[in-house]
Amino acid sequence: MPDTLLDPAAADHDAAREIARLAAIMRALRDPDHGCPWDIEQDFASIAPYTIEEAYEVADAIAREDWPELQGELGDLLLQAVYHAQMADEAGHFDLAAVARGISDKMIARHPHVFGDESRDRTADEQTHAWEAIKAAERAGKEETRVLDGVALGLPALMRAVKLQKRAARVGFDWPQTAQVLDKLVEEAHELVEARDSLTHDEVEAEMGDLLFVMANLARHMGVDPEVALRRSNDKFTRRFNVIEDRLAAQGRHPKDSTLDEMDAIWNEVRAADRAKKLTE
């Protein structure tokens, strides 16, 4: 591995120059005397939703394999990092250089098999365990001593559920068999159905949360990312419903002017076509 990767002065000059330009643009936008009024008004909390949105737009471009779009979305996401770093710099917390230095140092520390003396002769699974051990040591250094410490509150709920469950599983708090998760899923579903007419809305919400949490656990046991699975189902629903709209539009009608039976019949046709296509592939 070239030693230049460990030297901050050896950074790619084009990338360094363009990031420095972006940082300068952000400083100008936030200038209290000459900057943009909207940008000046923003704070960490008001910008955070945009940061999350941009991350999802990056994921969307990747899912669509739209590489020109991905370039733009990555730029938007990079702007979010620069934006937060600029606000932190103004508040005296840290600056963009500290952010870049911190992640560079972290990547080097977490890859001793690349940047250090450890052997690269590991399976992907063994490397994952080594990575988790390094992260656990880092959390201990931050005095995050509880098993679930450090699982970000701002994650999407399904993703956070899986991360919490993985942490608990590391210390043995997990069902050993998928069948046990399925039993729990059935139990939670029955509880929700039986109590739906007698519980308050808040209690129903709590029961629904329990059911979704077990669903996330089932996905984890089956090696499925529930976020990815649900995203695929969302896409499938959108595509099939668009066909319903198109079929009705060809008849000069709108979904709101049709019956559920009519729309369901078209839906079933599309579903049958999807299944037939899978059999021929």
From TrEMBL:
- State which Enzyme Commission number(s) the record gives: 3.6.1.8
The UniProt GO MF terms for this protein read: ATP diphosphatase activity
- InterPro entries in alphabetical order: MazG-like_dom, NTP-PPase_MazG-like_C, NTP-PPase_MazG-like_N, NTP_PyrPHydrolase_MazG
Show the catalytic activity: ATP + H2O = AMP + diphosphate + H(+)
Domain spans labelled NTP pyrophosphohydrolase MazG-like? 42-115, 181-240
The kind of enzyme this is, by top-level EC class, is hydrolase
**SUPFAM superfamilies the UniProt entry points to:** all-alpha NTP pyrophosphatases (SSF101386)
Source domain of life:
Bacteria
Tell me the protein's name. Answer: Nucleoside triphosphate pyrophosphohydrolase
